[in-house]
Design brief:
Helix content: 10-25%
Largest sheet: 4 strands, mixed
Structural class: alpha+beta
Order of helices and strands: HHEEEEHEEE
Mean pLDDT: 83
Shape: elongated
Radius of gyration: 21 Å
Strand order of the largest sheet: 2-6-5-4
Low-confidence stretches: none
Strand content: 25-35%
Distance between the termini: 10 Å
Number of strands: 7
Length: about 160
């Protein structure tokens, strides 16, 4: 179903077969808002996504997928480079993570905890990026795998 068909169906439901009161642009906004709310109400299996990356020793903050709310990120699994045995650090609240950073400020082989936070984007346009901070910071580069519930693409074309 495309956006034009959805608008036609909505107009049929509200009894407005032609655009007399609601413009197409207004209905498009409402349809996309409805989709966003629907997706946020549950953890739909078809939106479960896995990603990979590398957590660097000299840059220990890991940027998560853009446009996905922090609470939609789930599991993180780390594997030290050269090792075959992955492990799962424990997710803690941002407040607890901040406290743990003060207690475990030296780099070790394996980060034990992580928390998800937002960090100001480097291009200084007022935007933020969802970031994972690990405690303690890794003592070497680490492969990372993670799971999250992605947001579907907005409907913007007919």
């Amino acid at each position: 179903m495309n956006l034009s068909t959805i608008r036609t169906e909505v107009r049929d439901i509200i009894g407005e077969t032609t655009a007399d009161f609601w413009t197409d642009a207004e209905l498009n906004r409402y349809v996309n808002e409805a989709q966003r709310r629907f997706v946020g109400e549950n953890r739909w299996s078809w939106l479960l996504t896995e990603g990979t990356g590398t957590l660097l020793e000299d840059d220990p903050d890991f940027l998560l997928t853009d446009g996905v709310a922090d609470y939609r990120h789930l599991n993180i699994m780390l594997t030290k480079l050269g090792d075959t045995r992955p492990y799962l650090p424990t997710k803690v609240t941002p407040a607890r993570g901040f406290q743990l950073r003060q207690e475990y400020y030296t780099a070790q082989s394996y980060p034990t905890w992580f928390y998800v936070t937002s960090v100001a984007d480097s291009d200084d346009d007022g935007s933020y990026q969802t970031t994972v901070k690990f405690i303690p910071e890794p003592g070497s580069d680490v492969d990372i795998e993670f799971q999250y519930y992605r947001a579907p693409a907005s409907l913007d074309g007919d």
